[in-house]
Amino acid sequence: MLFLEQPLIIKYGGHADQLSRRHWGMDRFRIQALQKIIDSGQLSAEDRQAAVEILVQKALIFAHGAEKRGHHERAEHYRGIARHHQKMGIYSQ
Q1: Which of 30, 19, 89 is nearest to 57 (CA)?
Q2: Residue 20, phi-psi category: left (phi > 0), alpha (psi -120 to 50), beta (remainder)
Q3: Model's pTM, two decimal places?
Q4: All structural domains of the chain with their residue ranges
Q5: Which residue has the higher pLDDT, 75 or 91?
């Protein structure tokens, strides 16, 4: 394997028209979408379980970020979403 000292790729840290630059907390949209599909009753038991696990993970990560930024009410809201799904007894982690 040959190693070149000169970089051949220029990486950019994002573009001004990226959605993540226009909307804070993009995962809140993902969390809402997961809640909607879980509540729809259209998923198989296996797919529902997977969606719930992802929802809980995303909600807890989002809550942690909100707490870190001093948004305590928002953090509690997303922790509540995670607890709701955990208490239903369908979350396996």
Answers
A1: 30
A2: alpha
A3: 0.72
A4: 25-87
A5: 75
